[in-house]
Amino acid sequence: MTQEMDLFRLRWHYLSSEGRKVFLKSNNLSYTNISEDEMSRLLTLSNGLVDSTKEYYKIPFTEVFDLISRRRIFLHKGFGYITSQDIISVIATQYRSFMSKQLMLCSNLYSRIIEDERLKAILGNLNTVYTGKNYTVGSGNAHEIDIKQLGNIARRAFPPCMLSLYSTLTTQHHLKHFGRLQLVLFLKGIGVKMEDALFLYRSEFTKKMDPDKFDKEHSYNIRHSYGKEGKRTNYTPYACMKIVNLNGGGAGETHGCPFKTFESNQLNKFLTDNISNPEPGEVREIIELAKNKHYQICCTKYFQTKNPGVKLNSIIEHPNQYFELSYSDGNATSNKTGVKQEEKKPVPSS
User: Fold this and answer.
1) Per residue in 6-64, pLDDT tens?
2) Backbone angles phi, psi at 56, to 5 degrees
3) Where exactly are the transmembrane stretches of this chain (predicted)?
4) What are the φ/ψ torsions at residue 83 (nearest 5 degrees)?
């Protein structure tokens, strides 16, 4: 449900004013924006609390308790006057209520459904299923990564989860098992060669351990992640849902999603360190979203502050998606990034 609500809010954010009106009408939501005459009266009554440059909706106060508690609304004679930006709170509450009722209906059928072992297995793993683009090696990755420029690339284009892991690796010269795995699969997905990944991990780990110890305990796992050992499986980089559901945040553990595992003060430092000249309230907004468990919206907002030239049509769902989008406006050809775009070969017609 959290994922659905995040996606719903993001889609509303990108709707035009006319698009929002069409949505309300098509879904029989009888919220209409106030007339010019009512706006004039409201400006007089509100003593400057109402902004004449914004659109306002008039809604019964019983439907806007959430906004009342956050003092985001002007009340008058049993009605709340809210902006087109804040009306999403009202609509989202109704949407959540609708989904809850539908989930209740589904739960009543669940006992019969799980009698089928095939469906039981599918439903048991549904919360970590990712159906977006495949970021395994050989599935269309178009980047060549210069390992010597990886530090610059990380600061510019890594999502927070991978930037945090990379920073830990290069400052503490160690990562625990799940952190090593999460990062190496991401690196493989963006185009880092296995030899370069081994070089990176070896050069950092051996600042604290004997090279022979590294070769015995860690080299195999990196080669295995690249499908060069064991069953030679081409493992897929973790998607956001998988990362969010990892049990990170323990002593010495840095894997998982920072928006979930970081304390507020730690997250505030990370954001202020990595966002140059943020707009007023941007950092606070992301921290509030994290408190409310909207982790992927946090990542999407972070991306937007770092890449204002890239227009998003959906929420961030995968760390490798984040990386690719960072270069979607032509930055990939810059020598400063350390990323070189391969020439794409034409696909023969069938």
Assistant:
1) 888 888 887 887 888 888 888 888 787 788 888 888 888 887 777 877 888 888 888 87
2) -125, 145
3) none
4) -75, 165
* Mean pLDDT, the chain, integer: 82
Choice between 206 and 245, residue whose per-residue pLDDT is larger: 206
Same domain, 321 and 190: yes
User: Average pLDDT for residues 318-334, to the nearest whole number?
Assistant: 71
Q: What is the CATH number of the domain that holds 12?
A: 1.20.930.80
Name the band, by pLDDT with cuts 50, 70 and 90, for residue 246.
confident
Of residues 136 and 305, more confidence is placed in 305
Nearest of 183, 137, 176 to residue 160 by alpha carbon = 183
SS3 142: coil
Query: Taking the CB of residue 276, how many other CB atoms lie within 10 A of it?
Result: 8
Whole-number Cα distances in Å, 26 to 21, 23, 31, 89, 102: 9, 5, 12, 18, 20
Report whether pLDDT(141) > 60.
no
Same-domain check for residues 205 and 330: yes
Amino acid in position 52? S
Considering its fold, how many domains does the chain have in total? Answer: 2
Residue with tokens 């949407």: 95
Q: Are residues 57 and 199 in the same domain?
A: no
Residues 128, 245 contacting (CB under 8 angstroms): yes
| Calpha distance 343→341 (Å, rounded) | 6
In a domain, 170, yes or no: yes
Show the domain range for 11: 2-91
| Whether residue 83 is found in the same domain as residue 211 | no
Which are the contacts of 270, defined by CB distance < 8 A and separation ≥ 6? Answer: 160, 164, 258, 262
- The Cα–Cα gap between 207 and 138 comes to 33
Secondary structure (H, E, C), 144-191: EECHHHHHHHHHHHCCHHHHHHHHHHHHHCCCCHHHHHHHHHHHHHHC
The residue-averaged pLDDT of 103-129 equals 68
In this structure, is residue 103 part of a structural domain? no
Inside any domain, residue 295 = yes
Same domain, 63 and 186: no
Nearby residues of 1 by Cβ (< 8 Å), 6 or more positions away: 96, 99, 100, 103
Residue 204 host element (H or E) = helix 194-205
